[in-house]
Automatic annotation (TrEMBL):
Taxonomy, superkingdom: Bacteria
Pfam families linked: TetR_N
DNA-binding region per UniProt: 26-45
Phosphoprotein as UniProt keyword: no
Domain HTH tetR-type residue range list: 3-63
Xref: Gene3D superfamilies: Tetracycline Repressor, domain 2 (1.10.357.10)
Keyword vocabulary terms for this entry: DNA-binding, Transcription, Transcription regulation
Entry's Gene Ontology molecular function annotations: DNA-binding transcription factor activity; transcription cis-regulatory region binding
Protein's recorded name: TetR/AcrR family transcriptional regulator
Stored PROSITE patterns: HTH_TETR_2
Length: 204
């Protein structure tokens, strides 16, 4: 096959998905625009979903790994008796996450705005669920070491966490310039940190 076929298909596929979303993107148009036959396409990807996956999975998997590393760092704080530093650690990792989003901007634009009908359709929701699961474990460990218990209802915790993650990904959804996004998430972190502290203090 012609050298560069895969790269050409990825390039054209990305444009098509960004313009129309996964559901409305035309595989026939992608192949035609790339200047190859349908058979050449199937030599690389079995279907349109596999092409979409190839465009976004490296970035998505990388973010999940960073997210898990952040969670481990929070549990390390508990082990070291420094759980009260969790808020500042969260903000530090948020800066890393947003930098990573912008280093892989097109992939996350596809995930956030164009992934309906793919396994990435609920990517943000899945992150929220992972965060809630790890947060519950975090507070259990804090309480086991004599710290305060988390008395916030699961329903409220879910709503606040979902709002937080949605707000972070709005930077990508609205094509916010990187520098503006970095400034925005500092304000966002301050807002949610104050909110959590006020809410937890009110429940003690």
């Amino acid at each position: 096959m012609v050298a560069g076929t895969r790269e050409k298909i990825l390039e054209v596929g990305k444009r098509e998905f960004l313009a129309k979303g996964f559901k409305d993107a035309s595989l026939r148009h992608i192949v035609k625009e790339a200047g190859f036959t349908q058979g050449a396409f199937y030599g690389y990807y079995p279907d349109k979903a596999a092409l979409f996956d190839a465009l976004v999975s490296p970035a998505a998997d990388g973010l999940i790994e960073q997210f898990k590393a952040a969670q481990k760092a929070h549990f390390d704080l508990v082990d070291e008796g420094r759980a009260d530093e969790s808020g500042s650690l969260s903000t530090a990792y948020l800066r890393r996450f947003v930098g990573y989003l912008y280093d892989n901007f097109d992939a996350f634009k596809l995930i956030i705005c164009c992934s309906g009908g793919t396994r990435y359709e609920h990517f943000v929701h899945d992150l929220v669920e992972l965060e809630l699961e790890q947060t519950a474990r975090f507070y259990e460990e804090v309480a086991a070491q004599g710290g305060p218990e988390n008395r916030i209802s699961p329903e409220l915790q879910h709503m606040i966490t979902s709002a937080y993650f949605t707000a972070v990904f709005e930077t990508v959804a609205h094509d916010m310039p990187r520098e503006r996004a970095l400034s925005y998430i500092e304000e966002l972190a301050a807002f949610f940190t104050c909110g959590w502290e006020g809410l937890l203090g009110a429940r003690e």
